[in-house]
Amino acid sequence: MKQALVNSLLLSLVAFLGLTGCAAQQLAIAPFDSPGGRLFLQHCTGCHGERAQGGVGPPLDATGHASDHPDSELIRGMTQGIRRPGASGEMPAWGGRLSPREVQQLIEFMKSLWTDDQRYVQSVLTGNK
């Protein structure tokens, strides 16, 4: 809900200021302007969508279920891949291509797309609360 409010305020600001082109685009992609966001745009959009809304792979934003998993499962899924019988696709293993720091940056980025409640529950699952 907080992210939706921020997005709404940004769009209102864009309309109010009459921003176009690059200025409006930069405001719209602000959550992606982080180390993890840039990694996401570089490596993950092909399957998870340009805004983490899902596609071949599941959504990683607040509409998905990534927040239902502790960090250890997210790390394992990214580094070792995920194979589910009957699924339309597989999550490839990125452990050989991403450093542990980059994996952590991607996880932090995903968390920035979740609601406060999702972040709290996920932190309990992870053992941080």
Q: What is the structure about, briefly put?
A:
The chain has 129 residues and is mainly α.
**Distance between termini?**
22 Å
The SSE order reads HHHHHHH
What's the CATH H-level superfamily name of the largest domain?
Cytochrome c-like domain
Fraction of residues in H or I helices: 55-70%
Number of domains: 2
Number of strands: 0
Report the total helices: 7
Radius of gyration: 16 Å
Low-confidence region ranges:
9-30
Per the principal axes of the C-alpha atoms, what is the gross shape?
globular
The CATH topology of the largest domain is Cytochrome Bc1 Complex, Chain D, domain 2
How much of the polypeptide forms β-strand, as a percent range? under 5%
| Biggest beta-sheet profile | none
CATH C-level of the largest domain: Mainly Alpha
Mean pLDDT: 81
What structural class should be given to the helix and strand makeup?
mainly alpha
CATH architecture level-2 label of the largest domain: Orthogonal Bundle
